[in-house]
C-alpha cells in the first residue's frame, strides 16, 4: 500500500509526491493566527525552540540556519541541520536547503481569521524512512499550533506516544520508494 498522495479524512495529514528523483512531503495547516505571528514562529530562535529546535538564523536570502533538535534518537544523540536560506520573502515564504531533512519550505497565505501554512520537505528518492519523516513533521506542525497558542514543548518529556501514533498510521502506507 503506497503513501497517501492526496488528503485523507484527517486534513492535518501529510502526503508524499515522487517526482524528478525526489520525494516531496507536503502538509497544509490552517492556523488561527496572523501571518506575522506565524512568520515570527518560523524565523525567530526564541520561538523556534518552542516547537521545532534550538536555532541560529540569519534571516536573509543566503543566510545560514542551524537547527539543533532537542528530542534524541535511539542512540541518545540530537540531530543537527546546517542549512542555507534559498528563498526569503517575509512574511510569506521561507525555504532552506540543509545537510539533513533536505529542502524545507514554508509558505504562508492569509485566510479568514488566520493563515494557511503550506509546508514541504523535499528528500532524495529512494527513501525507506518516509513514515518516520512524515510522523516527525506531523508532530512538529502540531507543536507549532500549540506554541502559537502559548504552549511550548517540554523537550525532556516530549509526547513520544503521540509521535508513535502518527508513525504507526503512516507506516501502514509505507512501501519501498
From TrEMBL:
InterPro entries in the record: ASHA1/2-like_C, START-like_dom_sf
Pfam families: AHSA1
Top-rank lineage group of the source organism: Bacteria
Domain Activator of Hsp90 ATPase homologue 1/2-like C-terminal intervals: 33-148
Annotated CDD domains: SRPBCC_CalC_Aha1-like_6 (cd08899)
Coiled coil: none
Family (UniProt): Belongs to the AHA1 family.
Protein name: SRPBCC family protein
Lineage: Bacteria, Bacillati, Chloroflexota, Ktedonobacteria, Ktedonobacterales
Amino acid at each position: 500500500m503506497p503513501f497517501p498522495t492526496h488528503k485523507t479524512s484527517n486534513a492535518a495529514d501529510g502526503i508524499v509526491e515522487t517526482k524528478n528523483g525526489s520525494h516531496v512531503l507536503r502538509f497544509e495547516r490552517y492556523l488561527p493566527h496572523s501571518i506575522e505571528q506565524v512568520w515570527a514562529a518560523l524565523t525567530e530562535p526564541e520561538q523556534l525552540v518552542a516547537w521545532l529546535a534550538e536555532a541560529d538564523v540569519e534571516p536573509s536570502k543566503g543566510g545560514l540556519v542551524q537547527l539543533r533538535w532537542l528530542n534524541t534518537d535511539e542512540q541518545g544523540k540530537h540531530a543537527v541541520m546546517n542549512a542555507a536560506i534559498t528563498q526569503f520573502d517575509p512574511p510569506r515564504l521561507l525555504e532552506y536547503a540543509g545537510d539533513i531533512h533536505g529542502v524545507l519550505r514554508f509558505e504562508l497565505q492569509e485566510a479568514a481569521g488566520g493563515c494557511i501554512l503550506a509546508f514541504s520537505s523535499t528528500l532524495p528518492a529512494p527513501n525507506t524512512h518516509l513514515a518516520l519523516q512524515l510522523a516527525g513533521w506531523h508532530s512538529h506542525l502540531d507543536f507549532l499550533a500549540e506554541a502559537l497558542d502559548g504552549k511550548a514543548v517540554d523537550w525532556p518529556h516530549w509526547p513520544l506516544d503521540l509521535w508513535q501514533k502518527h508513525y504507526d498510521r503512516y507506516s501502514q502506507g509505507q512501501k519501498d520508494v
